[in-house]
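User:
Note these tokens:
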Amino acid sequence: MPADRPVALDEYPIHQVPLSMKHVATGDRNAYDRCIFHVFDHAGRAVLVLGLGVYPNTGVIDAYATLRLGDDLLAVRASDALGDDRLDLSTGPLRITVDEPLKRFTLRCEADPADPDGLSYEIAWTADFPAVWEPHHVQRRGDRLMLEGRRFVQAGSATGWIRARGEEIRLAAGEWTGTRDRSWGVRPVPGEDGGRAAEEHRPDGFHWLWIPARFEDRFVMVIAQEDADGHRSLSEALMVHPDGGGRGDVQLGWPHTDITYRPGTRHPERAVVHLTDPARKPLELGVEVLASSPLAVGAGYPPAADWQHGSWQGRGWTDRRTYDLSDPSAHPMAAFGVTDHSARFTLEGRVGYGIFEHGSFGRHDPSGFTGYDSVAP
């Protein structure tokens, strides 16, 4: 077996612990480092969700892209053994290039020669606002640390092209919005043994909102995670202004959200997020859902049944498929995963666009949900 050798990143004075940059400070098998990008049009026709992750202690790198068009969800997934070059953000046909850190990225998916009508794209993603930290995220189940993550979020714009089903979609400036999230830390990957924590500390309910909303002159970020009784374990409401304007970030109080669900489901159709400016003036962030992309279908987020992030698929694994979302009963587990909804937002006469990421499972007293089988009337 070859000896462990330094990697290129070890040449730079960026070390945080006395280890090579190919290693992380924790031996937890659930260590991860990944990103997610959203690219969507303002008419609600298309939602592209893509991301890439590395799992240093299981030796896996993987990536995915899903495109929601009408009732179809086109998915491309790839996985491989993690190599030493951590600056190479690619696997299979999927690649993310950092052209300028925190500013400009190129997102690519190569076409499949065997399926020229399948999904491919080349997109320039450009930041319009500075990246901002999200709250430090810690989640335990009993005494077991299940998640500890550090994340930042950013909003921007996108140009380029997407090809799918024999059609080319041009991403015109001003007609598409982009958001992104970078996170790293510890988060369960497949194979985690829940043990006593899973058996004796199964949550009664979980309610999650992650809402990056981009306006022309400001970016609003709202996060809320609540337990079954409404106890808030993660909360953020922040207004961010463009660099160079001399205006700092503004906290917007303790967010409360009223959601209108599609009858018989937990699918949000519209919402109002109640915020408060520093002068205690109430603000209402209005939300109108345009299109929806369930992350448990195609994108590899739990409880996906066919593939999940960090799972070993062998070397050089690539998978392409199309899911029909017209019949929700065909994907029953999607309702127990987070869904990313592209949305139109309003705030004090302004109109903006962003993602209304929502997940609500089990009991949630503030919403009137009594259990895992409870839905809106």
